[in-house]
Write a structure and sequence with these properties.
CATH topology: TIM Barrel
Number of strands: 12
Shape: globular
Strand content: 15-25%
Helix content: 25-40%
Radius of gyration: 21 Å
Length: 335
């Protein structure tokens, strides 16, 4: 771009604003801080912390170690954690998802007892709790297994209420059932939880990037796949904007795009069309790719992670849910 009144091309020197670290900090547009992050925690009912093979550095936590993780996050300035539960018992209806003594319910109470100012987000889905690994009530239709949408709504609503009863500050429905925000909002309001926000996984794709998570949570479908309810990765902006608009109309307080990195253009579209707070989910596959490359010596982990999170922020995210959260917060504090 040429500006009126310039003497010559050599008078246009963008490098002046890159000359020192202090100047670069003065003019940078993207400001990352620990307050931008959500730290995910896997919680199981076992007595030991166990490593997750596909996600180096991430563990399945006991209730006690989940509390320690939450305290670490709070000490680093991270305002929220999100809990994913892994029960000992699974059944066709995912009953441990809405049990009063379910994994997330117990973990929520333990964390709120020791870190009351930390926001606890409850992932609200059934896939980790069903013996078939799907996100709702599985039925046969014309000889094919499929998730029945409307009967699943009641189970998701019961799950949300039980999580709010346990003290969850936000409910995060991720099942991608039609009408789930309406069902959950009505159930929360009727149960006296009108002030509990809903963080909707509004735009969630049937993505290959979820592979490591499914091993971590033991939630891979035993039959079929999730393509009938999660979004088509080859879909365009119209589907994404339609899904987000439906959730916003039904009362969602946050909108989320999942995965984030391969869908930054979709994230930008939502930012341009909606005023609700926007969450980017930096998913397990994105995390594991960076970890594997860093361990092989192919990439600088710190620089790669911060650059990636910065890209999500630039695309329009207000908040980033990332498995890198603790490390990233430490790096930010180190400057």
């Amino acid at each position: 771009m040429r500006y009126p009144g310039t003497v010559s091309d050599l008078s246009l020197r963008p490098r002046r604003l890159r000359r020192t670290p202090a100047i670069r900090r003065m003019v940078q547009e993207i400001q990352l801080s620990p307050a931008d992050l959500i730290h995910p925690i896997f919680v199981h009912e076992g007595r030991d912390v166990t490593e997750i093979r596909t996600m180096p550095g991430v563990q399945r936590h006991t209730f006690e170690s989940a509390v320690e993780q939450a305290q670490q996050a709070q000490a680093l300035g991270i305002p929220a954690v999100i809990l994913f539960g892994i029960p000992d018992h699974k059944d066709a209806g995912g009953s441990q998802a809405y049990a009063q003594e379910g994994v997330i319910q117990q973990a929520t109470r333990a964390i709120k007892a020791t870190a009351p100012d930390l926001a606890v987000i409850a992932d609200t889905c059934l896939c980790e709790y069903t013996d078939h690994g799907h996100c709702g009530h599985l039925v046969q239709d014309a000889g094919q297994w499929t998730v029945d949408n409307d009967s699943s709504l009641e189970l998701l609503a019961r799950t949300a209420v039980s999580q709010a009863d346990a003290g969850a500050d936000l409910i995060a429905p991720s099942a991608m059932m039609d009408g789930q925000i309406t069902a959950i909002r009505r159930a929360l309001d009727a149960a006296g939880h009108a002030q509990v926000p809903v963080m909707s996984y509004a735009v969630k794709y049937a993505s290959a990037y979820y592979g490591p998570f499914r091993e971590a949570a033991g939630s891979a479908p035993s039959v079929g796949d999730r393509a009938t309810y999660q979004m088509n990765p080859a879909g365009g902006y119209r589907e994404a904007l339609h899904e987000a608009a439906l959730d916003a109309e039904q009362g969602a307080d946050f909108l989320m795009v999942k995965p984030a990195l391969a869908y930054l253009d979709v994230l930008r579209q939502l930012r341009d069309h909606f005023d609700l707070p926007l969450v980017a989910y930096n998913v397990s596959g994105e995390y594991s790719l960076v970890k594997a490359a860093a361990q092989a010596g192919y990439m600088d982990e710190r620089r790669t992670v911060l650059e990636t999170l910065g890209a999500m922020k630039r695309a329009g995210a207000d908040t980033i849910l990332t498995y890198h959260a603790l490390d990233a917060a430490r790096w930010m504090k180190e400057g």
